[in-house]
Amino acid sequence: MNDFDVLVLGSGPGGRRAAIAAAKLGRRAAIVDSRTMLGGVCINTGTIPSKTLREAVLYLTGLNQRELYGQSYRVKDDITVADLGMRTQHVIGREIDVIRSQLARNHVTVLTGTGRFLDPHTVGVSGGEDGEREQKYTADKIVIATGTRPARPGTVQFDDRTVIDSDGIINLERIPETMVVVGAGVIGIEYASMFAALGTKVTVVERRERMLEFADLEIVEALKYHLRDLAVTFRFREAVAAVEQHPRGAVTVLESGKRIPADTVMYSAGRQGQTDDLGLDAAGLAADRRGRIKVDDHFRTDVEHIYAVGDVIGFPSLAATSMEQGRLAAHHACGEPVPGILELQPIGIYTIPEISFVGRTEDDLTEAKVPFEVGVSRYRELARGQIIGDSYGMLKLLVSPEDRSLLGVHVFGTGATELVHIGQTVMGLGGTVDYLVNAVFNYPTLAESYKVAALDAMNKMRHIARLTD
Ligand SMILES: Cc1cc2nc3c(=O)[nH]c(=O)nc-3n(C[C@H](O)[C@H](O)[C@H](O)COP(=O)(O)OP(=O)(O)OC[C@H]3O[C@@H](n4cnc5c(N)ncnc54)[C@H](O)[C@@H]3O)c2cc1C
After folding, report:
1. Could you write out the three-class secondary structure of 386-439?
2. Which residues line ligand 1 (CB under 6 A)?
3. What's the CATH fold of domain 4-149+272-333?
4. Per-residue model confidence as pLDDT tens digits over 16-26
């Protein structure tokens, strides 16, 4: 008999959910990770530190209160990295505690160290307690949830002080006065907006013409306007030729010849699957150029009893989806009936201000020649918007004029990542814009924006009907 029914490599959101789901189904489950990484990238270097940092920035700068109390309003004048780090470390510590307790409560065995395949059913774990010898464990089913690390272009020398990647943010010694962010993906733009809010002069360099091109164009334009207002400079269609390091900072040299001096250069140039040291060949598996592992609809790899979930399988690389993938993989591995993963998944971008959406974008629908009507609600027209001092927020519904179903929901501003779930629920349950028109919402709330936007869409559709009747 094997040592475990299900053994999971990596304790991030995907791995953790897989191990706990297997344990809940009565299986002997184990999870492997190094002592310093329990909770994964998510808890230690990615989602949780970045979102806590954002909250600390918003609180200490008083940015969200300035519309009400004036542009000079601040909770603290000289914000230090210690002020920011305190909150981050507190939350990380608490989260790790919660995870430890969940694993213990569910009788998941935690194997400390790094795992690698010795054969398709055997994993060697080394680097654990007191650096003891590699221990071998066998399992019926194995789930790979080893996540990713920041990709580092070979042409740039990282010193983890002046030239850093996103992992280096939480180790900064001081808040930089100037910063270059290379790459306008989600992580790059989130950090660019946080530092801009802190008063850092940020320049964002992006090879492509647009940023966040999967999001609603109008909302991305609104974000760019806000970030420019916080002194962010955008350099689109520009590539970095070199980063020169000097004693008091770095100069980012662009291929166009521009030279940008900065205290800190942060590279956010994609991520690489952590599969190099996994011994995949011993299991009969291989990863692609970016270290990612291919899976089927049930998260099974090419070797039937080995599953892979989370960032290591690629898009969408979110904690939220990784968790669900882990749960579904464990259920499949344990022979439980599983539906496929729901297609309708929200995207949250924690910039300042934040963005969230579910469903399709205007561009996407136009390209597919799917007609739609737009209903918009602006926070400044809502009592709650006035109360909290958010005059820029908006919610936009894309509605099918044919059957009045919701095709997409796009939110910008305070609470966007929470509000989107109302739209997601209506869409997921096959509801129409009529429900939002007829529903009574608490007053004064931002949720009320659904009703206002629904009425707007409805009025536009009525107008067309009147003209064409
Ligand atoms: C800066 C930043 C901000 C983010 N913000 C958000 C956000 O706001 N919302 C969101 O949904 N997502 C966000 N993400 C993405 C999110 O963090 C990831 O999607 C999620 O963590 C992936 O989970 P995972 O299960 O793949 O494991 P990960 O969290 O990637 O963890 C993988 C774990 O595997 C371990 N491991 C690696 N190799 C081995 C081995 N050989 N043996 C044992 N263990 C191993 C690692 O030590 C690590 O602990 C962010 C990411 C970053 C970097």
Report:
1. HHHCCCCCEEEEEECCCCCEEEEEEEECCCHHHHHHHHHHHHHCCCEHHHHHHC
2. 9-15, 32-34, 37, 40-42, 46-47, 50-51, 114-116, 145-148, 166, 187, 274, 277-278, 310-312, 317-320, 322, 348, 350
3. FAD/NAD(P)-binding domain (3.50.50)
4. 999 999 999 99
